[in-house]
Amino acid sequence: MLVIIIGRSGAGKTTFIEAMNCPQNHFSLSAAVEKQLVESGLPVNHDTLQPILHKLYTANHYWQIPAILEALDAKKFLVIDGPRSLPEVERLRELCPNSIIIKIEAGPSARNERLGHRDQTDAEAFARIEYDESCVTGLEKIMTMADVTIENNGSLERLQAIARKLRSLLG
After folding, report:
1. CA 163, 123, 144, 69 torsion: positive or negative?
2. 9 band by pLDDT with thresholds 50, 70 and 90
3. Which residue of 54, 55, 75, 105 sits 20 to 30 Å from the alpha carbon of 157, by its own alpha carbon?
């Protein structure tokens, strides 16, 4: 089973996945690019990741699907962190009909505050992120495909409890 976690930057996707406590079942779509940035001595943030990922997905919407399917092989489930490519998500659903899309949702002020703390983003950087997620990526359409929505405007403990419950249901 594929568990596809979606949401805007700062919504709490990675926090949710970390609380599930199943690193062997986690596939980060940005991990390969993050590794490349670190090796190049560049910072890992939206402004460095997004252009590279956009270029890769423009060249081939499905470039990560073989790695995702390989990671899923022989596992009961695989959690995918934050896809932004609509064709990729649609294809994954075709290939893995036993999948679920979970949307983590939080308001803009909470996300802005979280990104400021995590990535030291300012208002201008947050506006760029909002623009990219609304107009450049396929995130808006992907979010309409969600099977379940988890509101993350409350406590960290509440989000973690929901994540642990999901993990127990997955086995």
Report:
1. negative
2. very high
3. 75
What 3-state DSSP class applies to 15? helix
CA distance 144 to 103: 9
Residue 147 lies in a domain: yes
Parallel, antiparallel or unpaired: strands 99-105 and 148-151 = parallel
76 Cβ contact partners less than 8 Å away, ≥ 6 residues apart: 1, 25, 170, 171
Residue 29 is assigned to a structural domain of this protein? yes
Q: Which domain holds residue 80?
A: 2-165
Phi, psi of 25 (to 5 degrees): -115, 20
CATH number reported for the structural domain that contains residue 140 in this entry: 3.40.50.300
User: What is the crossing angle of helices 46-59 and 123-131, to 10°?
Assistant: 10
Residue 12 is assigned to a structural domain of this protein: yes
Residue 171 forms part of a structural domain? no
How many domains in the chain?
Answer: 1
